[in-house]
Amino acid sequence: MPGAIHAEGLVKTFGRVRALDGVDLDVPEGTVLGLLGPNGAGKTTAVRVLTTLLRPDAGRAVVAGHDVLTAPDEVRRSIGLSGQFAAVDEYLTGRENLRMVGELYQMGSRAARVRAAELLERFHLTDAGDRPAKTYSGGMRRRLDLAAALVVSPPVMFMDEPTTGLDPRNRMELWSVIQDLVADGTTLLLTTQYLEEADQLAHDIAVVDHGRVIARGTADELKARIGGERVEIVVHDPGRIAAAVGVLGGFSRGEAVVERHTRRITVPVQGGARLLAEVIRELDARGVELDDIGLRRPTLDDVFMSLTGRAALEEDADGSGEPGGPGKLGGSGKSGGSGKSGGSGKPGDRTAPAPAGAAAAEPAHPKEAE
Ligand SMILES: Nc1ncnc2c1ncn2[C@@H]1O[C@H](COP(=O)(O)OP(=O)(O)O)[C@@H](O)[C@H]1O
Ligand SMILES: [Mg+2]
């Protein structure tokens, strides 16, 4: 298949870290696969292997009809890569950056100039095209980065966390650019930490954790599997948490997640706004006073909590800022049947505080990538 991505049994270790621990992937031509996972899951390593930047220790991969190990040059000629590592030269203008890429691909300077102008237009950068890239906002920079990966119209694209660190407006703008691209038939493998993003952009999702694919399916399938929507409440009085959990238990389709320090309780539900009204009445009848209540769609963290019994959010708050290695996530042990949680697996013992207010539907933003 000229535009497909296929990988089997990919393994890559760095010292004692198994960054990829037997990854199989299939992305049919013209479709989008979302590789969804928290920091340190192995997403970038997978992208680097598939784009020939890194040799796997085991396994094989065929990208755009070429084997990454035996025909890396052919693979490179058929792909575009944008994301965390793609280089935009800060001191060149947007236009110069794009022309330079075209010339690197030996397009000829006239063709490179025409292509640069086309891409600036397409990515709404024409007005900023003659300013140095270092004056661009985060969203503009990502668009330039994406444009650079598209100079030669590759049939297969890789995007490594294209919107991480962007504000919601820029994120949605980039989503629409990506959607246009995909509508043109490009095969895309996209990595993300946001279920919402995979939901918007991907036909299929593979959830990765510690170098393995732990679940796959469409966004709807994953959400159904973890029990759909969430009711989230913040109880006013910590002494009433147990009573509130009792009430929510009557509506819940799964286990409650309790975050004691924020007095926040989350349960999977089905039934939408009407159910919310019933929950409020019942809590009121039991004398549980609320500071906040809401219905929200599942996040990556919910998917993770369901699949692994621990939180997906990484401790960025501690300022370490590095990709999480094993043990950096959640750390509350497996729940549900692993038998080794031994009471330590407090479901609410999340490493990172839930983002406040409206941001609750998204994981905490890692620092803006430089
Ligand atoms: N070059 C490297 N040297 C050592 N460890 C690495 C290297 N690249 C990645 N790792 C480790 O491999 C794991 C997966 O990393 P990565 O693929 O970057 O994850 P993600 O992109 O999902 O955040 C992490 O534990 C990370 O620290
Ligand atoms: Mg990464």
From TrEMBL:
Keyword annotations of the record = Antibiotic resistance, ATP-binding, Cell membrane, Membrane, Nucleotide-binding, Translocase, Transport
Q: Name one Pfam family in it.
A: DrrA1-3_C
A single MF term (Gene Ontology): ATP binding
How the protein sits in the membrane? Peripheral membrane protein
Low complexity bias locations: 352-363
Q: Where is this region: Disordered?
A: 314-370
Q: Which SUPFAM superfamilies match?
A: P-loop containing nucleoside triphosphate hydrolases
Composition skew (Gly residues), residue ranges: 321-346
Its domain of life? Bacteria
Please identify the protein, giving its name as recorded: Daunorubicin resistance protein DrrA family ABC transporter ATP-binding protein
InterPro entries linked: AAA+_ATPase, ABC_transporter-like_ATP-bd, ABC_transporter-like_CS, ABC_transporter_ATP-binding, DrrA, DrrA1/2-like_C, P-loop_NTPase
The listed locations are: Cell membrane
Q: Where the protein is mainly located, per its record?
A: membrane
Domain ABC transporter, chain residue ranges per copy: 5-235
